[in-house]
Amino acid sequence: MNTTIPYGALPMNDSFKTPLVVAGRILLALMFILAGFSKLGNLQGTAGYIASGGLPFASVLAVVVGLLELLGGLAIAVGFQARWAALALGLFTLAASVLFHKFWAVPAEQAMVQQLLFMKNMSVAGGLFIVAALGAGPASVDARRSPRLATT
């Protein structure tokens, strides 16, 4: 167990770290897996929503976004190419937030909900960027394939 504790940090038993990383990955990924299934199961509705945001090629984007969310979410959940999947989903989440949760440009009665969704997405993107930076941890496909990737 690591006995060096940085100033202001609380010690954590090392045996908690891996299960917490796995739980964190699954919780981050779950939102995307479910959204991906939903989008792919209703491509017409997804394309309509994308078109309502003024984006071109809405039908193509619906498939691409659905696959990105589903496959990227699964990759993060199992820790396969997790850094790349997390980076892609993090950038996607930032873009989707700016395009579809414009709390600064909606009527006052919608602003609070849109700001809440925007800030939730910023937090999710932050978590994804942490996975992109630190990797999936020791309980992952990435770590089994290359132990040097087991950074947590």
Find the structural class using helix and strand composition: mainly alpha
Q: Biggest sheet, open or closed, and with what strands and sense? A: none
Return Rg in Å. Answer: 18 Å
Q: Report the uncertain regions.
A: none
Shape: globular
Mean pLDDT: 92
Level of helix content? over 70%
Order of helices and strands: HHHHHH
The multimeric state of the shown protein is single chain
**Roughly how many Å apart are the termini?**
13 Å
Question: Approximately what portion of the residues adopt beta-strand conformation?
Answer: under 5%
Number of helix segments? Answer: 6
The overall strand count is 0
Question: Briefly, what is this?
Answer:
The chain is 72% helix and 0% strand. By secondary structure, the protein is mainly alpha-helical.
How is the topology of this model organized?
Blueprint (H helix, E strand, L loop, with lengths): L13 H28 L1 H10 L5 H21 L3 H19 L7 H27 L6 H5 L7
Helix pairs in contact: 1-3, 2-3, 3-4, 4-5
